[in-house]
Amino acid sequence: MTTHNTRAGQTGALFISDLHLQAGHPATTAAFFRFLEEQARHTQQLYLLGDLFEYWAGDDDLQDPYHQQIITALRALSDAGVTIYWIAGNRDFLVGAEFAQAAGVTLLAEPHVATIAGQRVVLLHGDAQCTEDTQYMAFRAMVRQPAWQQQFLATPLARRKAIIAGMRESSRKDQGAKSYEIMDVTPAAIAAVFADTSCDVMIHGHTHRPALHSAHGQRRYVLPDWEPEASPPRGGWIAISLDGVITRHRLDGTQVSD
Ligand code: MN
Asked: Domain limits of the chain?
């Protein structure tokens, strides 16, 4: 068998991240729906490893028509028997229990160690390992506190959206000024995750630098972000086959050679 993804349950798990879904990006949304229909239908587990959404202002935004489209599609996949797991990204960490229930996804804390096809794999978004970005790390420590989130979620939805839009704008400006190294994960933070979890395989996103890094008997797979209208198009997924083989795939399904 050399073909993939043609039969139900043929793949053990699929992983995606950093789609940054938003109503204003119909091509990415269409690529996501195509992925759900053509790929994710045939897997046992689907892991969403953060920043599925460009932003999430709170579960009281569930009724937004665009969000309803995404939730309906995830729900259909879940109802079809695919187990869907969610790890929060730096943009959609306010997703909560109401979203999870509506979409049929299980929220996981990171780092999460999964055993898939007999293989232990540590899963995370990746933003917490960008430790040289001290300004972001301080911000992250603040907004991941339940007390901060409670207070933020108590403000009106429209106000929250305005605040988030302002933060995205200033973040865009900041990123232009920051160096390449600062925006990537730091080796020490990655080594700590490997050591703390006793895993040899890691999958994460966030950095938008798709790659397989192999060193010291450890493998670190980095997921791509999705921008199907870029040239070349960006996007794709990682698959773990039923016999534990890990492969990387472009948006058109072709395999990236490692
Ligand atoms: Mn991210």
From this structure: 2-251
Q: What single string gives the DSSP state of each residue in 90-145?
A: SSSTT--HHHHHHHTEEEE-SSEEEEETTEEEEE--SGGG-TT-HHHHHHHHHHTS
Is-cis flag, bond preceding 232, omega within 30? yes
Q: Phi and psi for 12 in degrees, rounded to 5? A: -70, -50
Q: Tell me, what amino acid is at 51?
A: D
pLDDT surpasses 90 at 169: no
Question: What pLDDT is recorded for position 167?
Answer: 86
- Supply the pTM of this predicted model: 0.94
Q: How far is the CA of 1 from the centre of ligand 1 (A)?
A: 35
The pLDDT, as a whole number, for residue 9 is: 62
Percentage, residues of the chain above pLDDT 90: 88
Cα separation, 91 vs 172, in Å, equals 13
How many A from CA of 172 to the centre of ligand 1? 13
Q: How far apart are the first and last CA of the chain?
A: 20
Position 94: which residue type? L
**44, 83 contact by CB (below 8 A):** yes
According to the CATH classification, is domain 2-251 in 3.40.630.10?
A: no
Question: 18 CA to middle of ligand 1, Å?
Answer: 6
Q: Hey, what are 173's tokens?
A: 């400006």
Q: How many angstroms does the Cα of residue 243 sit away from the middle of ligand 1? A: 30
Note the pLDDT tens digit of each residue in 197-239.
999 999 999 999 999 999 999 999 999 999 999 999 999 999 9
Distance 78 CA to ligand 1 centre (A): 24
